[in-house]
Automatic annotation (TrEMBL):
It is found in: Secreted, Extracellular space, Apoplast. The lineage of its organism: Eukaryota, Viridiplantae, Streptophyta, Embryophyta, Tracheophyta. Keywords: Apoplast, Glycoprotein, Glycosidase, Hydrolase, Secreted, Signal. The gene is BGAL16_1. Belongs to the glycosyl hydrolase 35 family. This is beta-galactosidase. Pfam families: BetaGal_gal-bd, GHD, Glyco_hydro_35, SUEL_Lectin.
Length: 798
């Protein structure tokens, strides 16, 4: 490879880092170092909780609220990736506007008194299109490989790139992460694998203030309290960069959530067992994959089960349970960071982790690894009951302040209220996409071209067109198409024939269908569709997609057209003309709904007014098939309602429309439908928390807020009574108590009934305490409810 080209490619990567550095230099602040126990900020050891909030997955108008709610939840650090392919979509053309204004994002973090963690990549994965790499790297992939395999040229590059010093600015954050989960692919590169991550670390170190302390390995996953082998050197702290608060969702697969209790257990274990001092929740707010930013098969809604949901609403009990955990850890953080750790057995599946300082300060974690049984253990001459599969935290080694399995915070229910429908045919106009044929395509080749390398990620769509002479036979011919893309639509002589699609788990699929062919000239048009580009795996630049084989079987004979002359068109005409914008929509002739009959590749447009209020706005696409939607020219993402999960449900039907996208009246909605969905059943709604519920027993600890600790840390006091605490969202109050029982209620917040023991005063007590209020608190005590309805029986309050 020419030396000049190699230097240019290395220059592009370093220039990206330099531009990024200059962009976020405004967040500079105190000195950061570390030892074998924790990060040290301004000379103080810190035990930090971090939350991932990705700036492009929300809007600038949402950032203050998201960061504020994270701070209220006990988060100290806001973490985000830098999304290279969004900031430099074309080589040398940068974009830091709107949702990409990383400067504004970090200024907001700083304004609210939190630290920042920047994960600079260059590769981020993140279920993000092409793993965050700009697709133009695909065309210089050999240069990119040379770039990462020859770190010795770093010094020469900086000397020969005069613009670098001018745009570089100092940057100090809580910490910075290079790369992401590289260990998963390193072995595939054999002896060339380790040099890359060493080069990336050296690059960060050599960039002056970026990372003057060297590299620290970290852990990603759900069980780092069990799986993390420890830092790469004993003088480095244990860092958990991705504690997955849920599991990202893909089309065609059922949801897999994660309970608040499990999250809390693993965090407590990581701190107690691994001396963990930095935990980042991935995601704390997932947000929305707007436009075409999601990777292969990934939903538009991202980590909706996070402590802050897709719309930024607090998800309970996850947010509140973690808030309680953070509070109890901070009660004893000084002891955890400066004390000596001890570990000893309390039983076959039980153990204690003890942290003690010479001054007498003490904190303990009592672990019950028995997943089925509650047990009683003896710890420091005192009996403690431990719930199954839980960790009890004693910030003073005496009293249980928190148990990971006992949720004292409220549960809430999110619901959607329909605000308007689009059920009149007069509300809609439609435009039918034309089906290109071989003669009208701008690109020709005597082979089947690879999809991604042809579209350059300018569109999800690539048309493959073919013309041929067919001599008829008695049998009806069969078309077979083998594809490595995600979806395929087949048209013969301008008429739709069939479609097929793959899955997240299977990288290939085939369309096999009988086709009506003319005797003589025939035209086949195949629309290959990607639902996001891959985001992971070794040799990402070598991955292929698109149609790999086309054959027609007729009367026992088969003809392979794979090396026949083909015509290609990138994208749809509606995309090219941008008919999803107000100016672009004037470039085509729209017709009344149903003018062409319902069919594939139809664009629909209508106008609507924004719902009143401030609640998040959503569009219901449960009647549609597959496609993409725009509001006032801004894409709210892909939808794929027709691809059902194994349980028979669509993966997602409600789609987020940020209020920042909306005008009070006359908003333009354009829907590009690949299949044959029904736009008359689209509706618009608002999302809000409509119900809250609390459930405690006499064995639950009281809220952490009731704890106080003496200045020397040796004495702790707390309220002795568990409480149900209920809280509505801002600007709303409790209007009705639908259920209340003090005694032995059956079930919990999701399903409940009065049990054999029930105080008749339950409803009246709850109504007096809560009706008309934004928040209320009801102690779990006989004093609150009067006579004991069942003496000697342990009681719950629901």
């Amino acid at each position: 490879m020419p030396r000049k080209e190699a230097l240019e490619m290395r220059s592009r990567l370093l220039l990206w880092f330099a531009v990024l550095s200059a962009a976020v230099a405004v967040v500079c602040g105190g000195s950061v170092t570390y030892d074998g126990r924790s990060l040290i900020i301004n000379g103080q050891r810190r035990l930090l909780f971090s939350g991932s909030i990705h700036y492009p997955r929300s809007t600038p108008e949402m950032w203050p609220s998201l960061i504020s709610k994270a701070k209220e939840g006990g988060i100290d650090v806001i973490e985000t990736y830098a999304f290279w392919n969004q900031h430099e979509p074309k080589q040398g053309q940068y974009d830091f506007s709107g949702r990409l204004d990383i400067v504004k994002f970090f200024k907001e973090v700083q304004a609210q008194g939190l630290y920042a963690c920047l994960r600079i990549g260059p590769f981020i994965e993140s279920e993000w299109n092409y793993g965050g790499l700009p697709f133009w790297l695909h065309d210089v992939r050999a240069l990119f490989i040379d770039l990462i395999m020859n770190p010795s040229r770093l010094r020469l590059l900086t000397e020969t790139h005069p613009s670098y010093p001018a745009i570089y600015g100092p940057l100090k954050l809580a910490y910075m992460q290079i790369e992401n989960e590289y260990k998963n692919v390193e072995a595939a590169f054999h002896e060339k694998g380790p040099p890359y991550v060493r080069w990336a670390a050296k690059m960060a170190v050599d960039l002056q203030n970026w990372c003057s302390l060297g590299d620290i390995n970290a852990c990603n996953g759900m069980k780092c309290g069990e799986t993390f082998a420890g830092p790469n050197k004993p003088n480095k702290p244990a860092i958990w960069t991705e504690n997955w608060t849920s599991v990202y969702e893909v089309y065609g697969e059922d949801k897999r959530g994660r309970a608040a209790e499990d999250l809390a257990f693993q965090v407590a274990l990581f701190i107690a067992k691994k001396n963990g001092s930095f935990i980042n929740y991935y995601m704390y707010h997932g947000g929305t994959n707007f436009g075409r930013t999601s990777s292969s098969y990934v939903l538009t809604a991202y980590y909706d089960q996070a402590p802050l949901d897709e719309y930024g609403l607090i998800r309970q009990p996850k947010w509140g349970h973690l808030k309680e955990l953070h509070a109890v850890i901070k009660l004893c953080s000084d002891t955890l960071l400066r004390g000596v750790q001890y570990n000893y057995s309390l039983g076959q599946l039980q153990e204690a982790y003890l942290f003690k300082r010479p001054s007498g300060q003490c904190a303990a974690f009592l672990v019950n690894n028995d997943k089925r049984r509650n047990v009683t253990v003896l710890f420091q001459n005192t009996n403690y009951e431990l719930a199954a599969n839980s960790i009890s935290i004693l910030p003073d080694c005496k009293k249980i302040a928190f148990n990971t399995a006992k949720v004292v915070t409220q549960f809430n229910t999110r619901s959607v209220q329909t605000r308007a429908t689009f059920g009149s045919t007069k509300q809609w106009s439609e435009y039918r996409e034309g089906i290109p044929s071989f003669g009208g395509t701008p690109l020709k080749a005597s082979m089947l071209l690879e999809h991604m390398g042809t579209t350059k990620d300018a569109s999800d769509y690539l048309w493959y067109t073919l013309r041929f002479i067919h001599n008829s036979s008695n049998a009806q011919p069969v078309l077979r198409v083998d594809s490595l893309a995600h979806v395929l639509l087949a048209f013969v002589n301008g008429k739709y024939i069939a479609s097929a699609h793959g899955s997240h788990q299977n990288g290939s699929f085939s369309l096999v269908n009988k086709v009506p062919l003319n005797s003589g000239l025939n035209r086949i048009s195949l629309l290959s569709v990607m639902v996001g580009l891959p985001d992971a795996g070794p040799y990402l630049e070598h991955k292929v997609a698109g149609i790999r084989r086309v054959e027609i079987q007729d009367g026992g004979h088969s003809k392979d057209f794979s090396k026949h002359p083909w015509g290609y068109q990138v994208g749809l005409m509606g995309e090219k003309l941008q008919i999803y914008t107000s100016p672009g929509s004037q470039k085509v002739q729209w017709y009344g709904l149903g003018s062409h009959g319902r069919g594939p590749l139809t664009w629909y447009k209508t106008l609507f007014d924004a719902p009143r209020g401030n609640d998040p706005v959503v569009l219901f696409f449960g009647s549609m098939g597959k496609g993409e939607a725009w509001v006032n020219g801004q894409s709210i993402g892909r939808y794929w309602v027709s691809y059902l999960t194994p349980s028979g449900e669509p993966s997602q039907t409600w789609y987020n429309v940020p209020r920042a996208f909306l005008n009070p009246k006359g908003n333009l909605l354009v829907v590009q439908e690949e299949e044959s969905g029904d736009p008359l059943k689209i509706s618009i709604g608002t999302v809000s928390v409509t119900n809250v519920c609390g459930h405690v027993t006499d064995s639950h600890p009281p809220p952490i807020i009731s704890w106080t600790t003496s200045d020397d840390g040796n004495e702790s006091h707390h309220g002795k009574i568990p409480k149900v605490q209920l809280r509505c969202p801002p600007s709303s109050n409790i209007s009705k108590i639908t259920f209340a029982s003090f005694g032995t209620p059956v079930g919990g917040c999701e399903s409940y009934a009065i049990g054999s023991c029930h105080s008749p005063n339950s409803l009246a007590v709850a109504e007096k305490a809560c009706l008309g209020k934004n928040r209320c608190s009801i102690p779990h005590s006989l004093k609150s409810f009067g006579d004991d309805p069942c003496p000697g029986t342990p009681k719950a309050l629901l």
